[in-house]
Amino acid sequence: MSNHPRFDRRRHQPPPDSGGRLFDPPITPDPTDPAIAIDHLVDNNKLLRTAFDTQVGDLKLWELVAATRREILTVATEYTSSYRDVSRPSNTAEWIAAPIIMGGHQPDLFHPGVWLKNFAIDAYARRLGGTAINLIVDTDYCRTTSVGVPVGTPDSAQLEYVPFDQSSQPIAWEERGVEDLECFRSFGRRASDLLTPLVPDAILRRWWPLAVERLNESHRIGLAIAQARHQLEERYGLETIEIPVSELMRLPTVMVFMAWLLARSRELHSAYNAALGRYRRRHRQRGRTRPMPDLVEKIDDTAEGPWFEVPWWIWSEDDLQRRRVFANTSTPGVLILSDMETLRVELPISLDTPPSKWVDALSRMEEHALRLRPRAIMTTLIARLLVADVFVHGIGGSAYDEITDDIVHSLTGCQPPRHAVVSGTLRLPLETQFPELSKRRPLAELAEVHRTLRDLEFHPECHLEPLSGQPEAVRDLITEKRRWIDTSPTATLARRRCHEIRATNTRLAYYTQSVRQQLLDRVGPLAASIRAEKILQTRDFPWCFFPENQLQEFLLLEMD
Q1: I want to staple 241 with a disulfide (CB 3.0 to 4.6 A). Which of 80, 204, 469, 502 is the partner?
Q2: Structural domains of the chain, with CATH
Q3: What is the tens place of the pLDDT at every residue in 485-509?
Q4: What is the pTM of this model?
């Protein structure tokens, strides 16, 4: 048997055309190949789970999975019901046993291709009679509080960055409250006013008041945006439930799994770096920081032994800046976590201590306003291993799950469940306002201008009036050039022939100055049009910059 899992070598690219969507597997099974279906993927993953016999504390891994699913369904339902209606099945046992389809993303203003995942997990879950859960990754950084809005015309568009809150140091979304309430409240109006010349009916103006309303209740920018988006999804008929990653990490079963991993910090450290190394070799990446840096090992001046970096973040209520986490297990029965600067905590966590102590210790950290949060790979590892029958990735997350698979296999000996991939491309509907855009090709026009300028340099006579209409001096120059062109480039004449042709071209250039200037005058506007086109044709504009009817066609077509 191979020492490593059979990696999923699917390679995905975003659909090139606006309105294009990628579902792998498809929402509706392919009649030519029924095995390519969400049903088959779920059945295969359930079969893989039957082999989850690794001991985690006092439970087998498959037992911990069952307990985690019960907890997350309950807590996610309670969280979602705080701001929208939720229908909870009457038969709890069937609810827990039914498939769970999960996705997730940061609570920012993401593009429609990301939003498509939420509709896909709902469609998958409906087909399977299961539950769709969306993870709000509020443990990631809120790096910016402004959004690039396209302004101007299709010929001269540029981005104007409009803030929805006052900027501050990057901190996790779960800690990010509002700094400037009026700025947040007015964002929808200000951004819509700028966007109107290009997209007059964007959904942003009508939707943003929901985000303002949710901010008054949640007091967190990320949750306000996520909950308002989820309320809109309810209007579109989605039956998903949601849970922030910060809440997921507070579940006792998840704490047990986290503590088990941390108690094996040396093994986790080694497995993580080995998985990165194998990923780099498979993809021929030479840099030691790609796709992410190795975890490091540190030796301090005390007798505590080596410190192994683990893939978590740590911060405190007094200092919200995320810091790397180092673990030390040299003292029997004790796990020491530190950022190697100011934070240090000793926990009664080891493979020899009971899991109840693990949960108590991690709970006390939360009570003392110390946050221990997983990095991206660990977040999806926990979601895929403990909860989801199928986790739905975008294209980027899917690529890095090779690393996750490798880590899972190294630590548990189990083959991890396979994931699905969903993405899409939607571009602003500018041709509705500007139908002439469909005929414009500024890049091709600029290339033609450059070809003509080059031709002017080497063949200026081709851009002059017929020979008979030219001044005698021009006719003489053209005749002389033709004579030199017709001259055989012998060894003795080759250099002089080349020199004379070039000299004639230079003299003829005087008579093509007006043609050259006309071409040069076109370069600037065409270059501006190309820059504008590049800005306007991106697939990365927030979903709320689009008209509602365009969004519904893109998002709901598969929901019939």
Answers
A1: 80
A2: 21-137+220-255+376-430+552-559 (3.40.50.620), 146-216 (no CATH), 289-374 (no CATH), 439-536 (no CATH)
A3: 888 888 888 889 999 899 998 998 8
A4: 0.88
